[in-house]
Amino acid sequence: MWSATYRELMRRHYGVEIGMHSYGPSLNPGGLPEGTHIGNYCSLAAGIVVFRRNHPTNRFSQHPFFFNADLGLVEDDTIYAVRDHPLNVGHDVWIGGNAIITPRCQSIGLGAVVGAGAVVTKDVPPFAIVGGIPARRIGERFPVEVQQVVMESRWWEYPLPQLVPLLPIFLKNASLENARRLREHLCPSEAPGNPSNL
Question: Which of 12, 23, 109, 188 yields a CA-CA distance of 20 to 30 A from 6?
């Protein structure tokens, strides 16, 4: 959750980008495929599996001998490589235990929730709650007008010490009024009646 060194090692040796304060057992070395990008303040439970390519079902054989250059039969991969088909996880995303992310999902949006055991077969929009097999949208975290104000606050870009004074706001439900208070504290130029910064 805290170590900048760990994040650098994961980036350098495993090709996985992990944003500040993101945590979970699935962020261990080898837990996510090369090219994965995790935003700030994400919570990833145990048992998450991320697939970045499928076997070619339209060919005579689906075996990796015929598409994976690491096995020595073909000179280059004959389907896209894992690193060329990355998964991008937005900020403040929560992925529940044993969720499976398939290659057809390339993006899990800002503030989204993926339920435990879900099989995600397509992109997840910001602030959506998805679950099931295959995963489908089962709700929204906030109404659209609250989502907009939260996005404008960009609170996930701030290190934790700068957010601690705003703890009373973070402990309340995400009403439109509270979202506006959060935005005004972080972006005073956005407050009504305040001139924008030049």
Answer: 109
Burial of residue 193, with CB atoms counted within 10 A of its CB: 0-12 exposed, 13-18 middle, 19 or more buried: exposed
Q: Which of 13, 21, 37, 55 is catalytic?
A: 55
Q: Are residues 104 and 180 in the same domain?
A: no
pLDDT digits (tens, 9 = 90+) for 153-180: 999 999 999 999 999 999 999 999 999 9
Q: Strand, helix or coil at 138?
A: strand
Domain check: are 172 and 111 in the same one? no
CB within 8 Å of 180: residues ≥ 6 apart: 149
- 22's tokens: 């993101």
Mean pLDDT of 112-129: 98
Residues 131 and 166 in one domain: no
163: containing domain:
144-190
Q: How far apart are CA 55 and CA 61, in angstroms?
A: 9
**What tokens were used for 21?**
């304060």
Domain count, the chain: 2
The distance from CA 106 to its chain's CA centroid, rounded to whole angstroms, is 10
- Catalytic site residue 55? yes
Q: Rounded to 5, what percent of the chain is helix, strand, coil?
A: 30, 15, 55
Prediction pTM value: 0.88
